[in-house]
Amino acid sequence: MIFGKAYRCCLFIFVVFFCLLTGCDSTTVGSHAMIDDRHAQERERMVHKQLERRGIADKRVLSAFLRVKRHLFVPGNYRDLAYSDQPLPIGNGQTISQPYIVAFMTESLGLKETDRVLEVGTGSGYQAAILAEICQEVYTIEIVPELGESARQLLEDLDYSNVHVKIGDGYKGWAEHAPYDAIIVTCSPTHVPEPLKDQLAEGGRMILPVGKKYAQELVRLRKEEGELVEESVLPVRFVPMVNDGGKRY
Ligand code: SAH
What we know:
CATH topology: Rossmann fold
CATH superfamily: Vaccinia Virus protein VP39
CATH class: Alpha Beta
Helix content: 25-40%
Number of domains: 1
Strand content: 15-25%
Bound molecules: S-adenosyl-L-homocysteine
């Protein structure tokens, strides 16, 4: 009994010291938990209203969207809008896509657990995190160094050891790790880049927005016996794919 009291007393002193050292108190701990809870509820609502109701049915895609904390991938001043039904600015004139578009593109790749995927246009790293929840390895390329570096840091902080970020021009793909079971492009070229066609595995799937600045189509391709079979699936509007000099591909 006495031992029990002494133990509780030591524990109390330890907690007080820990809080003093880390600068936290019960109110901040409580409010963090409340904010986490609120975001978890917002995520559930987003998955139900924006994804399931619009036809996204792949269980692995839906559960990836429940797990990945989208609010960590948007700038602090947009955190309250992180789960809303729209794209958001992420700095350097770029945007994180609307959740439905991220889900639609991911689902249409028909991903398996063992797949190795290439993404062109890392941006915030959100799409890469979604892919990393579903597949084995994710290789992602970003041309704007500031964006690529902050996405790399965030993905590392979140323990996504299966995501590999490269700063560079994704038009050329990432030959070193090719061929890929799936390729997803989240910036828009005027045509399907030849190197990406070459780096797609037999039976592999690719999805990308192709077209003019304001009139693009999401195009899905499949490599069958070395040939690419192509279909247009949805009208969309993405930021342009550019080269090192900022010129559009
Ligand atoms: N997938 C991102 C959205 C990115 S927006 C996310 O989940 O947040 C498109 C991104 O493509 C931008 O960050 C832009 O800088 C990048 N981009 C444009 N042209 C590129 C190129 N040639 N190679 C790699 N990235 C490119």
